[in-house]
Amino acid sequence: MSTRRTLKVLIKLLPSILALRKDRRTWVKQEGKDIDTERYRKNARKVLNTFITLGPVYIKLGQWLSSRADILPQPYLEELSKLQDEVPAAPFEQIKPIIENDLGPINEKFDEIDPNPISGASLGQVYRGSISGQQIVVKVKRPGIEKVVAEDLEVLKKILPLALRFVDPNLRYSAKAMLSQFIETIHEEMDYTIESSNLKKIKHDLEKNNKVVIPSVYDDYSSKNVLTMEYLPGIKITNIEALNEKGIDRRQLVIDVHKVFFTMLLRHSLFHADPHPGNISVTDDGRLILYDYGMVGRLDHETRLRLIRLYLALVEKDPPRTVNAMSDLGMLTPDFNRSVIEKGIELTVQAMHGKKPDEMEVQSLMELANKTMSKFPFVLPKNLALYMRMASIIEGIYKQHKVDFKFVKVLREILEEESLIKDAYIQELKYSFQRFAKSIDATISIAPELKKLIDDSRSIQLLNAKPKSNILLSGSILSAAIFVGSAVLYSSNEAIGITGIIGSLIIMGIFTIFSRR
User: Fold this and answer.
1) What ranges in 230-315 are assigned the alpha helix state H?
2) Residues ≥6 apart with Cβ < 8 Å to 429
3) Sheet holding 280-282, edge to edge
4) Would residue 164 count as lying in a domain?
């Protein structure tokens, strides 16, 4: 079965693989300029339709790839981001045994469950019901989905790494990392106890936010295969006509969406990574309702600050700092050439045609990342990929509303409220001083004669011979080490480099004065 399925998938994907190889090469060579955008979009739509015909795992793969700026050209990302996880539902006769095996007889546990699903997705489907008069929704895993997923993941392990390396040898690192991240994510999504835990954590984190409503979980009616939650109906976030009828301020709504999701990202350790329109509704009084907590990202405080450092470095057009942040985020391959990547980033930033970086929207920042990352063998960490997915989907919502809104302005407000810009700059200084210290250590390490001079100086001092000369000699060695280290650091941080050079001269002057006393 596996061999037959592998051949079927390969035959289906082959035309798209060949098209992507050609499109990516042209995209990289021309840096995304003067390309036939419509042809790219047409090829991307073929990929999207192929994924839909291949089934649940490939629908999820398409969603995952929609954030991979290191793999796909920008038009592909934009088309794949439209991929909705909507699959015809399995009959309730196949669903009922799953519920009863985990929870017991339906007629004893529930008042009722409507056998007609309100939504069907690739991994599960959702039904309305009631418990003790309370309206609920029951999310149930698709029958036999574990077997389907296991078989198709084995197929992907054979095909995907080779296919991406064929598309571009630079993707050899991205392919391996992306596949392992995807497998981890899809297994998490199939365990509803994990989704329940995610929901509760985010609900706790946002409990003081009066702009958002999150359903409660019925633990006694939930399991690994069944998740029972409070029923919270609302208006779909992209149903502009219905929102207008309710008199809801759509500009404020767009601001609230960004603030809620970026506050999760920048204040808390867990963020919702799948905010497509089907997962966000609006109450009659304008509050947001969030659904589906299967796909989440996690950022610790250190990673968060590194991400902000990357953003600030791009906004301030500083290639050396950009590379520093990318390196700290684990985005660069072990054999990366720093000077080549810095030059590539510099050329990409210059190509923004005078557009002010602090006025750029998410799509522009994504395009900047896409054009930079497509040139080199980058590795995009899982949670950074999820962040990019979340940010790009939210901008898609904003574009549908067509209201006056500046993403960067709202982002800056959140960063300032959380004091994260100051913390990011402090971390940047710490990083620079660490490099500075390493530069001094390296200078001494590669200059054995300096070590010998220091050892000789210490021996002479122990014999109390020529103390004034020793003071001057020690000062000269220390000053020289700091000067050379600062010169090395100057290429990546001009301000710290200059400070170090000036400091070395001051140290030399101080030691000279003491040697004359």
Assistant:
1) 240-245, 250-267, 301-315
2) 496
3) 212-213, 288-290, 280-282, 235-236
4) yes
Six-digit token string for 87: 């699959």
Q: Name the token pair of 505.
A: 């001269």
Residue closest to 228 by CA, chosen among 123, 122, 140: 140
Read off the amino acid at residue 178: M
State which of 137, 166, 189 marks the end of a domain.
Answer: 189
| Digitized pLDDT (tens) for each residue of the chain, 517 residues in all | 578 899 999 999 999 999 999 999 898 888 777 888 899 999 999 999 999 999 889 999 998 888 787 788 888 988 888 776 677 788 999 999 999 999 999 999 999 999 999 988 888 999 999 999 999 999 999 999 999 999 999 999 999 989 998 998 878 777 888 888 889 989 999 999 999 999 999 999 999 999 999 999 999 999 999 999 999 999 999 999 999 999 999 999 999 999 899 889 888 889 999 888 889 999 999 999 999 999 998 888 888 888 888 877 877 778 888 888 888 888 887 777 788 888 877 776 666 545 554 455 566 666 666 666 666 666 778 888 888 888 878 888 888 888 887 777 777 777 777 777 777 777 667 666 666 555 555 554 544 544 554 555 555 555 454 444 455 445 555 555 555 555 555 555 555 556 655 665 565 566 555 555 5
Helix H, strand E, coil C: the string for 350-375 is: HCCCCCCHHHCCHHHHHHHHHHHHCC
Total domains present in the chain: 2
**Could you tell me the pTM of the whole model?**
0.76
- Residue 233 Ramachandran class (φ > 0 left, ψ -120 to 50 alpha, else beta): beta
Per the listing, tokens 């995209």 go with: 27
Beta strands in 37-121 (DSSP E): 112-113, 119-120
The answer to whether position 379 is within a domain reads no
Residue 210 lies in a domain: no
For residue 409, being part of any structural domain is answered with no
Do 482 and 440 form a contact (C-beta atoms < 8 A)? Answer: yes
Tell me which residue range forms the domain holding 63.
Answer: 2-85+147-189
Residue 71 near residue 171, CB atoms below 8 Å = yes
- What tokens does 291 get? 């659904």
Of 517, 509, 507, nearest in space to 468 by CA: 517
Q: Are 329 and 378 contacting, i.e. CB atoms less than 8 angstroms apart? A: no
Tell me, what DSSP letter sits at residue 190? T
CA 48 to chain centre: 22
**Residue whose tokens read 């030691």:** 511
| 300 burial via Cβ count (<10 Å: 0-12, 13-18, 19+) | exposed
Determine the 3-state secondary structure of 317 from DSSP. coil
Would you say 274 and 121 are in contact if contact means Cβ atoms under 8 Å apart? no
Q: Which two tokens stand for residue 247?
A: 């008199």
Q: Is the dihedral of CA 298, 302, 303, 304 positive or negative?
A: positive
* Domain end position, chosen among 155, 189, 223: 189
Residue 227, SS3? strand
